[in-house]
# Entry
Amino acid sequence: MRQEPAAAKSQSPTFPFGWLDRLSWTALIIVAILLGVAPITGQPHLIEKLLMVADGTLVRLLDIFDLFLHGTPQILVILKAVRQIRGAGR
# Structure
């Protein structure tokens, strides 16, 4: 089995995000929705943390981690959509 040189691999259009292309749309969207609206009762954490960013009160490490946890799936959906629209994730 022949391996590509590292330079050729890094210039591949799928190199940094090839793993994202292999993720299922269905699974990614389900996770994005569930973490986007969690907790089901009350104000969703994602909205709460984004309001804290807007107010400049997002300073606790736990709140920053919470924003990262609840916001990552939405960012991945956006990245996957952009890659598919541009044709890089074929």
Q: What stands out?
A: The mean pLDDT is 83. Helices lie at 6-10, 18-22, 25-37, 45-55, 61-86. Residues 6-86 form one domain. The first helix runs from residue 6 to 10.
